């Protein structure tokens, strides 16, 4: 209840409810309640259902959108539309004498106003979506499905990546495409040292950092845990290798500080890549995972042979995968 009172549109919603109550009082004051036998159930269900849906849409808009021009137009448009439908519903239960005209005005005037406001809302929502599409350009491609969005980072998840990769394979089987798999080094240790909340913030930082350094045609998704996948269209293995080297250096040189202590947390990543020569996304990702396992084994064996040597944080690991 407290949240409702604090809502920017709480006043207009209160006015709408007050108008509905006053309309009932006016109908009862000047009209006669129809006998039960004369009720037209088809009209009642149709007009009552339409009013219920308009009210549901209003609630969903209020719960899902922040305050702004588009939201305001949607809210006012739905309020006028709901009131028009509400008057239609009252007409089915209460008969107003023919000499009274104000009920016709109350029923007819709000409807075109509501449709006009809703049309403006849809137009500006269209403009808003075009702007959002530009922001999401590196995070989605052919289709949008909120169920495939990652819960932690502003990226799509592995299922979305597989769908996009399969679509690309089917649509352009002869083109040269590459996929990069990026894995954070010692990320479990970061979670243990600084906590999972800080680890989550680091993943968001990494996702935004990578996204800013990709081409407009590339697609970045969170694969699993601390791994990210990048789909690079019209890209051969040499270009993919160069991108891997650049991304590893980018993350190693990035400056991430602990939110509370301002301590610098060093970040490093390993990458592997391959050209898309398989006929399914599952096979491509399986091959990349195998390359990543081999890369980790090679790193571990190298450390065991040289236990005293310190690893170079700026060394790239991409060449070891090919």
From TrEMBL:
**Catalytic activity reported:** 2 GTP = 3',3'-c-di-GMP + 2 diphosphate
Q: Where is the chain membrane-spanning? A: 9-29, 41-61, 73-89, 109-126
In terms of SUPFAM superfamilies, this protein maps to: Nucleotide cyclase
Q: Which Pfam families match?
A: GGDEF
Q: Any idea which UniProt keywords this protein has?
A: Membrane, Transmembrane, Transmembrane helix
Which biological process terms from the Gene Ontology are attached to this UniProt entry?
A: cell adhesion involved in single-species biofilm formation; negative regulation of bacterial-type flagellum-dependent cell motility
The GO terms describing molecular function are: diguanylate cyclase activity
Q: InterPro entries per the record?
A: Diguanylate_Cyclase, GGDEF_dom, Nucleotide_cyclase, Rev_trsase/Diguanyl_cyclase
- In which residue ranges is the amino acid composition biased (Polar residues)? 313-322
Indicate what this protein is called per its UniProt record.
diguanylate cyclase
Enzyme Commission code(s) on record: 2.7.7.65
Question: What are the boundaries of the region Disordered?
Answer: 303-322
Q: Which residues form the GGDEF domain?
A: 175-311
Q: Name one GO cellular component term.
A: plasma membrane
């Amino acid at each position: 209840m407290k949240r409702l009172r604090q809502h920017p549109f709480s006043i207009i919603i209160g006015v709408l409810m007050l108008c509905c109550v006053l309309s009932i009082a006016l109908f009862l004051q000047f009209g006669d309640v129809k006998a039960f036998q004369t009720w037209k159930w088809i009209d009642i269900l149709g007009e009552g259902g339409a009013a219920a849906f308009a009210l549901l849409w209003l609630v969903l808009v209020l719960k899902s959108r922040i305050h702004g021009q588009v939201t305001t137009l949607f809210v006012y448009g739905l309020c006028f539309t709901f009131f028009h439908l509400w008057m239609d519903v009252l007409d089915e239960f209460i008969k107003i004498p023919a000499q009274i005209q104000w009920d016709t005005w109350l029923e007819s005037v709000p409807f075109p106003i509501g449709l006009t406001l809703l049309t403006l809302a849809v137009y500006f929502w269209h403009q808003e979506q075009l702007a959002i599409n530009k922001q999401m350009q590196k995070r989605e491609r052919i289709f949008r499905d909120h169920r495939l969005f990652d819960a932690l980072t502003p990226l799509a998840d592995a299922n979305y990546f597989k769908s996009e990769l399969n679509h690309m394979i089917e649509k352009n089987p002869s083109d040269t495409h590459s996929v990069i798999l990026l894995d954070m080094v010692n990320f479990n240790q970061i979670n243990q040292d600084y906590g999972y909340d800080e680890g989550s913030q680091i993943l968001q930082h990494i996702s935004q950092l990578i996204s800013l350094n990709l081409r407009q045609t590339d697609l970045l998704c969170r694969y699993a845990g601390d791994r990210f996948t990048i789909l690079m269209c019209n890209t051969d293995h040499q270009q993919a290798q160069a991108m891997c080297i650049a991304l590893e250096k980018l993350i190693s040189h990035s400056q991430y500080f602990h939110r509370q202590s301002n301590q610098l947390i060093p970040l490093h990543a390993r990458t592997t890549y391959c050209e898309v020569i398989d006929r399914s996304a599952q096979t491509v990702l399986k091959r990349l995972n195998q390359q990543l396992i081999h890369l980790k084994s090679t790193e571990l064996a190298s450390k065991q042979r040289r236990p005293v040597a310190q690893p170079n944080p700026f060394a790239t690991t991409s060449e070891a995968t090919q």
